[in-house]
Design goal:
By secondary structure, the protein is mainly alpha-helical. The chain contains six helices and two strands, in the order E-H-H-E-H-H-H-H. It has one domain.
Length: 120
């Protein structure tokens, strides 16, 4: 698995840039904004790998990724995950992650979507 040195300042800067880019397209805290933030974060991971504070795409990473980027409401999260799954950029991003890191991002997102859907 690829990784890069975890740098708190860089992580904050990248997060702020992602939020600003999504906000420029969709406003703040809309479903579209949340989905765009997720896609941009996944693109960043595809380009650079995970921060080395994660041992892989395990529960710790998934908890940070989901809690920091999706809405807390189940129905909102279902809609946002569906938007990510249908985004035309996802296949290329997921292919890079799969080839470089051996992780099935689309499969994981689809499983998360079904899990949320079954809760509702």
């Amino acid at each position: 698995m690829r990784s890069r040195t975890h740098d708190v300042q860089l992580a904050r800067s990248e997060s702020a840039a992602i939020h600003a880019a999504a906000e420029a397209k969709f406003g703040r805290d809309t479903d579209e904004w949340h989905a765009e933030c997720q896609i941009l974060r996944l693109k960043e991971i595809a380009d650079h790998g995970l921060d080395d504070c994660y041992s892989g795409y395990d529960t710790d990473w998934q908890a940070d990724f989901g809690s920091g980027w999706y809405s807390y409401g189940e129905f909102d999260a279902i809609h946002q995950i569906r938007m990510v799954l249908t985004d035309p950029r996802l296949p290329d991003i997921a292919d890079t992650i799969r080839m470089c890191d051996g992780f099935d991002m689309i499969g994981e997102l689809a499983a998360t979507y079904l899990e949320f859907k079954n809760l509702s």
